[in-house]
Amino acid sequence: MSVPQHVFDLLAPLHKPNTTFTRSGDRISSSTSSQEYLYKTERAGRAATQLVGEAQSLKAMNEACAEIAPRLVGRGQHDGEEWMLSEWHQLSSIPKSEQARLGEMLAQMHLASTPEGQRFGFPVPTCCGATEQDNTPEESWGEFFGKRRIGDMCERIGDKELSRLGSEVQTRVIPHLLGKLDVKASILHGDLWSGNARFSKDRSSPIIFDPSSYYGHSEADLGITRMFGGFSPAFYEAYHARVPKTEPVDEYEQRLQLYEAYHHLNHTLMFGGSYKSGAKGLLGGLLRWADDRGL
User: Which positions carry the signal peptide feature in this UniProt record (predicted)?
Assistant: First the structure.
């Protein structure tokens, strides 16, 4: 397959003169460098939306922490297709010795300055798995997470029991847990399960990819890290050494349960099955916690 001219125009200045480029599927190699590139195209529909969201996510993450994700080289439209060009990385599992480094890098990304006046949300839709997320901006973090995450997801699933639990959590739990937080809008990865975190052999460092970013509370990125495992205590210790747990610290566990519940709801929407019981368990547990406090 030939390398499109608009891709060549982006790559040529990054390499030695007279470098040639070859394409095999969505992978592009150069004749003078070991660095390879990923070239994606989508013509229309949710796949095109997902591609644009991924590109914008990488751009925001690159700006916050240059080493944490593949570098976005460029994106645009050509002949009616959306396209994206980013670095290709040779990946392996993250060694235990590198878990702390990943925590440090994630903290750096979350602590980075954001655009002035940035609200909670994102300029374009992003897709968490197959789910297009509602990133409509909100001034309040509690309002955003309640309406654009928990509420929106329960509405899409259409299960009566989940809708009841989600509605109660929105009314009784979220205003208390999130409404009083003093947090800035940090750029999030958005889908930070262990399958999206690997060790880059090209950089000799951890890397995260396939983002579904938005601006939100930094701890929201930690919710899904507990859903499938793969992150060691060293990861959390290194992260919180730089980004302390948000006050009130004694409600940290409940906040992470709430943030994890969103991903159980999303997996319920995509796959059903056991994820539904997981979502009910987390939401129900938060309501029992609220009962114990008279909320």
Answer: none
